[in-house]
Design goal:
Two copies of one chain form a homodimer. The first copy, chain A, contains 17 helices and 13 strands. The first copy, chain A, has 454 residues and is α/β, with parallel strands linked by helices. Chain A starts with 7 loop residues before the first strand and ends in a 7-residue tail after the last helix. Chains A, B: It is found in: Cytoplasm.
Chain lengths: 454, 454
């Protein structure tokens, strides 16, 4: 898969009509290839990090007036020579220029190939490279912050520290193997035990953080359920009221695939289409129950709404009992409070915690949002400095944890060679996250999910 | 409409997910505003045309790692200070950065406002500014070449020369007005007549060039007509065969609004949906005839196809007679030649020029393309160095021509003041093209059609 000798080219900006498009070239010959089709100052003689106005020419034919950015190796994203051509945003022109570069010795870049080169050339480790894709896909403050922190190496540094500590012991135990006949212990078993405990705890905490990290990265699946006329649609509109414009005024984002996106304090909540639930709730023991429950079981949060002036104690308790699922947080919301007086409100049938609102009059909606945020996020935030958001990292951490548990179990009983094997396994899986250990398949798998041009 | 004191900001690249997005700031304070949210080398102290890696920060919060391009006035597109931020291509990040700039004193740019400033600051004249939009919209070699030539000032220079010559006479005639009592002639009437003739001829030629210019810019409307089973669809596919991939492999281009785009020697031919014609041709005198004729009358070129082995002389002549329209070139194509022998081919019923092909076997398709190109383009190319592609320019040229004809008609009869008025009118309309004469309305009208960010 990996050929690094050639110079690659791709459009780095989105397709479509815009004022400008940026075409990126990277590789040893990037500057000399650009120079071949360039009318302007000699690019091969210019300093790195400079901008040059000029023309792209194909023989006698001028293709465009452009501005060229020059990044001389190793001072570039890929640590190779990089040239970026900022041309007029016509698809015809962009395509013509890319073809021209290919005619002059470049090759069309594969998905993620620029970032792959940045990784292979030591500019980024693997988890940082993955953060680049996360950053591009980020659609909320929280997801952007996590991705940026990962890109900046926060996660990598933490793993590196754990790894360094383990490596020390691994080498001491290796040493013991060399002196196996003499039955010496270079690696203090108590210290190893303590260290392994510490690392296992850290790894365990990272594993636990995935639930939250994943919710932040992909949004918190949230179902609104309730009987007909409980005011679910009005509630949905009240919740989305101001936020809607913010999430939807740039076209082409995630809105195509999900019903509605609600942003509370930088976290996206995906409000799942509850049409099934809407129809099913009054015959909840009957035919719709399975579909309803499926939707709820795929969610992290359930907002159950009832009409405070209408529902009977029996129906309310039955609904709540039926909808409750282990591991899914339920918020109980009494709606249409504007139609009740204080006395009636005090006599609401449900005895558990209830958020009393009027969706129609937009009363206590902010309070509800606060509760939604708290229910999904707040408790989990405690104690997690780093959040794991990537399922590949989760799996590697889980395998690391398994290996470390084997180390702990065997530390007092097994011989150095078995201990050494388990520690090496832990090191291997930790190394997979940052790319200290990789295979072509792994890289292919990761970078093929990138967009072309990155 | 026109406020130039403030600093404007917009996304310069298309919306959508891409590796990077480029945000453009222009105005007196562009660099100081960028510096306010910047972590990296002090941008206010850097040279023009340099690139800087750094971070965009909102107080304590980092928004992204970016590369910033610096263009110090007047060495920029707008001749103002310009800063371009190349950030990760997440809509969330792009939106956050734009909002941050607005919070720090920039204003969201209106459509075309960067180019408007380039015009107002004398970087481009009006027809060059319009060429920027044409260049972005260009979708073929020919349309791109015309737009680029116009951007480079070819058209403007030609108009400027005409204008300079007229201005001389205008000033001499003005002088005559000052000495009106003395009945002197500073402006030689014969020379003026000769010059006006020359200019009128050039203007006339430019007006004539619009038909071709417009065809090149917008594509040549081409209808394929013929009886059922004449092989129209097969012909369409044979024509599009190789070209199709070229015009369609970048999504979001003009393909949504037209049926098929065929590129011959850099010219786009818009093959109009002929479903109406297909059904109507065998009952051509009947109900479908009006719709068919409407489509044909909107086209510049008609390709009439018939089945060489099937049609009778009577039907053929009747079709051709019915389809022929003044001003629309018709190509007569005999299809299914592979089923006939030489003798049969020699005995084809139509006596006019016929292109004999087999759409199915792809015989003589290149020859047909050559004939299509020649019919639409070749004859018209002669004698036009500059092609007018813009209807606003066409109208201004027509008004110039009218004024010049009034000059010619009156030159021997009317007094200096009338002559002066007509010459000034001609100058006015010529000046409108390049923007020597403008109104806010005119500018508003032109630039509001641009995309935002250009």
């Amino acid at each position: 898969m990996i050929q690094q000798e050639d110079t690659i080219v791709a459009l780095a900006t989105p397709n479509g009509i815009g004022a400008i498009g940026v075409i990126r070239l990277s590789g040893h010959d990037a500057i000399t290839i650009a120079q071949k089709v360039w009318k302007g100052r000699d690019l091969t003689k210019q300093a790195s990090h400079t901008l040059h106005f000029g023309r792209i020419i194909d023989g006698d034919i001028e293709l465009d007036e452009v501005v060229t950015s020059l990044f001389v190796a190793p001072r570039s994203y890929t640590r190779e020579n990089v040239v970026e051509i900022s041309c007029h945003g016509s698809n015809y022109i962009i395509e013509s220029i890319i073809k021209l570069f290919i005619k002059n010795g470049a090759r069309a870049a594969k998905a993620g190939e620029f970032t792959l080169r940045a990784f292979l050339n030591g500019q980024l480790d693997l988890s940082q490279a993955e953060a680049v894709a996360d950053l591009i896909a980020s659609n909320s403050k929280a997801s952007q912050q996590i991705a940026l922190q990962q890109l900046r190496g926060g996660f990598s540094n933490q793993l590196q520290q754990l790894r360094d500590q383990l490596v020390q012991f691994a080498s001491l135990i290796e040493l013991e193997l060399d002196f196996a006949e003499e039955d010496v212990e270079f690696a203090n078993r108590d210290q190893l035990k303590q260290l392994t405990h510490t690392i296992t705890r850290v790894i365990g905490s990272l594993i636990q953080s995935f639930e939250l990290g994943n919710a932040i990265k992909n949004g918190v699946n949230t179902v609104i359920a309730g009987r007909p006329n409980a005011g679910k649609s009005t509630l949905l509109n009240a919740l989305l009221n101001e936020e809607r414009a913010i999430v939807s005024h740039i076209p082409g984002t995630t809105r195509d695939t999900i019903e509605e996106l609600l942003n509370i304090q930088g976290i996206n909540f995906r409000l799942i289409d509850t049409a099934g639930i809407r129809e099913a709730t009054d015959t909840i023991e009957q035919i719709g129950v399975q579909r309803t429950m499926e939707k709820i079981s795929q969610s992290a949060l359930l907002i159950y709404v009832y009409d405070a002036g209408e529902i009977s104690i029996a129906d309310l308790n039955s609904d709540i009992e039926n909808l409750q699922k282990p591991g899914i947080t339920m918020l109980v919301v009494a709606n249409k409070a504007d139609l009740l007086n204080d006395e009636q409100l005090a006599a609401l049938p449900y005895t558990g915690k209830t958020i009393i609102i009027s969706a129609k009059e937009k009363q206590h909606i902010d309070e509800l949002k606060h509760e939604i945020y708290n229910a999904a996020i707040k408790d989990q935030l405690t104690g997690h400095e780093t959040l794991v958001t990537n399922i590949r990292h989760l799996q590697a951490l889980q395998k690391t944890e398994e290996a470390l548990i084997r180390v702990l179990e065997g530390i007092d009983f097994v011989t150095s060679d078995f201990l050494s094997m388990d520690i090496k396994q832990a090191l291997h899986y930790l190394g997979e996250i940052t790319g200290a250990v990789t295979t072509d398949d792994l890289l292919e798998n990761i970078f093929s999910k990138f967009c072309i041009g990155k």
